[in-house]
Amino acid sequence: MTSNPLALDPATWARRTLRAVIVGLFAVICVLACPAAAHASLMSPELEDTVAGYLAIFIIFFVPVVGIVLFWLVHILPEQIAHKRHHPQFEAIRTLCLLSLVFGGLLWPLAWIWAYTKPVGYKLAYGTDKHPDYYKEHDLPEPDSATADIRQRVTALEERGVPTSEIDAIRADLAAIESRLASNVTRSEGV
């Protein structure tokens, strides 16, 4: 019977494996204990200088431009919101946004809040709570006063088929408001 040279008994195989592991660990320890040269970077000194030069140019020129653009975009955001919502005081919000840019963003929260608020006094004074551009964009006639706007809404309700009892109640309320406004105007003219 011929013996296979690769076939070893388990004890011999274990001794040879242990010897190989010990020699391997000794070789790794020698390599780690005696480094040839230490480098602080993976790049060569010339490549480091080139990368540092490009990085400096990027930081000096590009980062401030991007920062200024982002600052500007954030500060005109209330203006865009007011325009999209057809805020009647859109121009004032735009002005506040520009002032906020000048004052370093201190007025920006006020412009943000103002863009999301619904102006109550404006509707009382001008008869509408929409910017005039809203009526132009939707091909609607601009209301002349608060009562004209309400009359337009009542007409639209009639066209939709709202019950006449509700429309008559709205008309009665409108007549009462008009009479109060007329009496206030005559009193203020007499004073």
What can you see in these coordinates?
Helix 3 packs antiparallel against helix 4 (90-102), helix 3 (77-84) runs parallel beside helix 5 (108-116) and helix 4 (90-102) packs antiparallel against helix 5. The protein is built from nine helices and no strands. The mean pLDDT is 81. With 191 residues, it is mainly alpha-helical.
Question: Radius of gyration, Cα only, in angstroms?
Answer: 41 Å
The SSE order reads: HHHHHHHHH
Low-pLDDT parts are none
Mean pLDDT figure:
81
Give the topology.
Blueprint: H1 10-33, H2 45-75, H3 77-84, H4 90-102, H5 108-116, H6 120-126, H7 132-137, H8 146-160, H9 164-190
Helix pairs in contact: 3-4, 3-5, 4-5, 8-9
What are its keywords?
191 residues, mainly alpha, 9 helices
